[in-house]
Specification:
With about 475 residues, the protein is an all-alpha fold. The chain contains 22 helices and no strands.
């Protein structure tokens, strides 16, 4: 029997057994079934025995079949307004790719770093993180990996197995994961967090609200990741004379910005301005769901003849339809856990343990549990969809601002540094063959702990002031 089929059958058998376990009375039959569905999703996402978006559809189907939620409601999460934000991001990414602006931005960052090896690695990581703010973290990693490999080839004829190779390629993956935290465009946990704050807490967080809180965190975490990686995998060569020649040559060959490229950059600026208008609804007649409305306006603007810079045929190739389904499935998973009371029960247990604890302890518990749960779920979407609702419920129980704990859980869900399977940037970096799994885990474990520490410090200081 095929291995994947064995995994599927065995998982369903175990899930059926789970529903019959002696749970506490608080767990209703529906709650037990929802836990079993979550188990199935986690195993399928980890093993990829079926395509990841198909697992998301399975989460929706099983909830409908077992009447966890009505089928129309659970299926509607695929068309959740948050996906309008992601569609706009994919279309922007299509325009940047079409006119090679993404590569130009990456090369420009690297060219400013000089010839010192560690500085070049930082430049590549900074460029990756910046791109990940505006396009998907997977796309950012895919753009920067060939640039990183090209630089390594200039340093050493066979860079695989070297510390330079490990630092460069692992650094690109980790920078992509971190950069995505900065805006609602780069990685699914961020829009998922915003969506759950709206549906579970009635709080509408704007694009600018998130950026103001998250960008300073990213500015700290990228240099931290660079320092940790280059300390553990110290490059064999300190400086390479002429190492920047290839980068500068490529930039030179690109020439000056064309009118079309300028047009694309102007639209990009307009898009950012539109998203940032949200807080002005206090003085302007801007709709409550402006972030999503603006996203549709941006998508249409990019596609309109004469005004836009990409055609629908070009854009649809870059839209991650699987990601949109995955986000819908993730939202359905979190909603099902909340609807069946599983979220409230878990939050209740955590409340009992943390009732007399200081705020820093509560934040630390949420951050640590979420960050290390990625190893179990191997999906940023699944991790955030599970723990952001729990964080919101816990916040209400302990009378803490739900935005604070939700953002802690949403950001911690992006700390995917332990395994290649944890996130697509890790996986595509691993496929280049520059490092082994245990070498990523070695640096990733320390970085996860340090990033959680920085997140806690940011939450109890900077974020706490803003709430």
């Amino acid at each position: 029997m095929e291995k994947n089929l064995k995994i599927i059958i065995l998982t369903f058998i175990i899930a059926a057994i789970v529903t019959q376990l002696p749970f506490p009375e608080a767990f209703t039959p529906s709650a037990r079934i929802m836990i079993a569905i979550t188990l199935i999703a986690a195993v399928f996402w980890v093993t990829e025995c079926i395509p990841i978006p198909v697992t998301a559809l399975l989460v929706i189907l099983l909830q409908g079949l077992f009447q966890i939620q009505s089928f129309p409601k659970v299926f509607s999460y695929i068309a959740h307004p948050v996906n309008a934000l992601l569609i706009a991001g994919f279309i922007i990414a299509a325009s940047l790719k079409k006119y090679k602006l993404d590569k130009r931005i990456g090369l420009q960052f690297v060219s400013m770093m000089g010839e010192k090896t560690t500085h070049t690695i930082f430049g590549v990581m900074a460029a990756t993180a910046f791109l990940s703010m505006w396009i998907s973290n997977t796309a950012a990693a895919a753009i920067m990996l060939p640039i990183g490999v090209g630089i390594l080839g200039k340093w050493k004829e066979s860079p695989k197995g070297t510390n330079m190779g490990k630092a460069m390629i692992i650094g690109i993956a980790f920078a992509a994961n971190i950069g995505g935290i900065a805006t609602p465009l780069g990685t699914p946990p961020v829009p998922i967090t915003i969506a759950f704050l709206d549906s579970l807490a009635g709080i509408k967080l704007s694009f600018l609200d998130w950026v103001v809180r998250a960008v300073p965190l990213v500015i700290i975490l990228v240099p931290l990741a660079w320092k940790v990686i280059t300390s553990i995998y110290k490059p064999e060569i300190e400086r390479v004379t002429g190492g920047m020649e290839k980068i500068k040559q490529e930039l030179s060959e690109m020439g000056k910005l064309t009118k079309k490229q300028m047009h694309a950059l102007i639209l990009f600026a307009v898009a950012i301005i539109l998203w940032f208008l949200d807080p002005l609804r206090i003085i302007l007649p801007i709709p409550t769901n402006w972030m999503y409305i603006a996203s549709l306006l941006i998508a249409i603007m990019y596609l309109l003849p004469s005004i836009g810079v990409v055609t629908w045929k070009e854009a649809k190739k870059e839209i991650g339809w699987g990601i949109l389904i995955l986000v819908g499935g993730g939202l359905a998973l979190g909603s099902g856990l909340e609807a069946t009371g599983v979220v409230s029960i878990i939050a209740g247990y955590m409340q009992t343990l943390l009732i007399h604890s200081e705020l820093i302890v509560v934040i630390a518990a949420v951050a640590l549990i979420t960050a290390f749960s990625i190893t179990f779920f191997s999906s940023l979407t699944a991790t955030s969809s599970t723990f952001v609702p729990i964080a919101i419920a816990l916040a209400f129980a302990l009378k803490i601002d739900p935005v604070l704990l939700a953002m802690v859980a949403g950001a911690a869900a992006c700390f995917a540094f332990l395994l290649p399977a944890n996130t697509p940037p890790n996986a595509i970096a691993y496929k280049n063959g520059f490092f082994k799994t245990h070498e990523m885990t070695k640096v990733g474990l320390l970085l996860t702990v340090l990033c959680v520490g920085i997140l806690i410090a940011t939450a109890i200081s900077y974020w706490a002031i803003l709430f």
